[in-house]
Predict the 3D structure of the following.
Amino acid sequence: MQSIINWDELWKAIHVSSRFRTEKDKDPGAIWDKKAHAYNRITRDEKESTRQELGMLDLRSEDTLLDIGAGTGRLAVPIAGMISHVTALDASAGMLDHLKERMAAEGRSNYSCVTMRWEDAVVGRDIPVHDVVIAAFSLGFYDVGSELLKMDAAASRSVHLFWHVGPWREPEEMELYRAVHGEEGARQSGYPDALFLLNILHDYEIYADMQIYRAVWETIYASPEEAAEQWITMHAPGFEDLDLVTRHYEKRLQKDDDGMFRETSIRTTAMISWRKGE
């Protein structure tokens, strides 16, 4: 039966409504190069959601795996210790520089890096087919349906996508977004959720599974001021009212016995996955 809702076109309409999307689509590598250090910093102490997500993957020691939007290697680095070879693809050379440092620190050499937008990659030319393809929180494409089909073509066994369910951020962080960007800007800061992806795949006759979980994200800071500086770099470059953001983190962070400040976020998340030929 013909789908009543064209989920692919609805995704595109929401995508173009964001005031940040045009700049990111034009040169995402340059945008993320500027954020690479901050992103590496805020994910450095994150362990629990990584453990959760690694436990959901069906990996074998002889596997090859393509990580699309690999960033600084939160998943790619531990996966390299579990399988034969990891290919880390990212538009940002700065992000991949941090990934290489993490790989070196773990003594890993069974990986390769491709500095390229996934939209520009050609399977069979730039990227060989891998046993497994993953993309974790890196699906901000305009024509997401075409890119999902390319992921399917790049995998010989399975594809695993990690994406948010419901609101992109917790209510407390959305309050900060509204304070910094205004009500309209806060509404434009998110992406369509995992249900869109599931329905887009269905329209392409890819019948995926969806597993919903509560992802636990943790970051440890030396001070609320450090947390505020990292947040501004990631979410509001050029915003000058550091005190406003610092006050948010003074209320949000929990001080440990060792004097460090811990942020814990619980995000409702989905893993959408499918096996080839199933």
About this structure: The radius of gyration is 19 Å. The beta strands are 64-68, 85-90, 111-115, 130-136, 155-164, 209-221, 254-255, 261-275. The chain has a mean pLDDT of 92. The first helix runs from residue 7 to 16.
